[in-house]
Amino acid sequence: MTAPTPPRKPGEPLQPVHVPMLKIIEWGIVGWAVALVVTLLVPALHEGDRSWWPWTCVAGMLLGGIGWLYVRRGRGNAQDAV
Question: In which domain, by residue range, is 41 found?
Fold first, then answer.
């Protein structure tokens, strides 16, 4: 854990907040994986009208993987946006 920053003085520019995007994306992928396991283990969650639920979890994991690769390559940060 980092030390708290001192109060900002009037006229001093705001500093960007560091957000660990890779960790957030990784936890999202893990969440989708857990949801996939649950939907496959509980028959009521993947039969009948809910047969598409497991595929939603797979799509979430795949899109999360694409987002992870995008951020990992450095294009998902705002460092060069200024």
Answer: 21-72
